[in-house]
Amino acid sequence: MSDQILGVIPARYASTRLPGKPLALIGTKPMIQWTYHHASLSKSIHRLVVATDDKRIHDTVIAFGGESVLTSPDHPTGTDRIIEVAEKFPNYGIILNIQGDEPGMEPNLIDGVLDLKTKHRDWEMTTAAVPFTVSEDPKDPNKVKVVFDRTGRANYFSRSPIPASFKGEATYHRHLGIYAYEREFLMNYNHLPTSDWETVESLEQLRALQNGSTIGVYLSDKANLGVDSPADLEVVIRDFKEKGLI
């Protein structure tokens, strides 16, 4: 069981709300470069690659000195793209999935997810969550909620507010799209039975949960915004300016 960690950043050009999103400029650098840069600051990742089906993204990554793998354009999900890349790097026992639209991803958050995974090799996956801020609406279906037990294992993920504020105000935690997988589990992921939870919620991680796998949750106190829309991109640009990054 190898303890080497492969970080993979899946990046698609075709985005419904923001086409060409990985190449959108934040200052003078494309978003994928910021994501790659911040992920490379992790103390835990041994190798970092971008997985893309688009030559424009691939060439951009190579040009700024990153490593990129061109993948099949026919993958239905990001996990399928991750699996294709993992097959090319057989010596890595833990595979980390970092979304390409997380230009401000904190290296310590990445390390937290990976530390939890390396301490629990019997857990098939680990991920991350943060408490909702006062400005965030738990009813927003685009902000995925997660509940987890006292040992840090996820009970459920939902687009609906969970737990329900039936008697008093509940504390909500927003799920972050970062996953660390045990290699063997990832390579067999597509052989898991289809999950009706996954279908109705449109949340891929529920396939693992409904089939009895364990997903550990690293709880962070804060997380920078990912980019799902042009409005998100403007917020990130303002945030980078305030931090003096651009």
Automatic annotation (TrEMBL):
Q: What is its EC number?
A: 2.7.7.38
Record key words, sorted: Cytoplasm, Lipopolysaccharide biosynthesis, Nucleotidyltransferase, Transferase
- Entry keyword annotation includes Transferase: yes
| Subcellular localization, as worded in the UniProt entry | Cytoplasm; Membrane
Q: Which Pfam families match?
A: CTP_transf_3 (PF02348)
Molecular function in Gene Ontology: 3-deoxy-manno-octulosonate cytidylyltransferase activity
Q: What is this protein's function?
A: Activates KDO (a required 8-carbon sugar) for incorporation into bacterial lipopolysaccharide in Gram-negative bacteria.
The protein's name: 3-deoxy-manno-octulosonate cytidylyltransferase
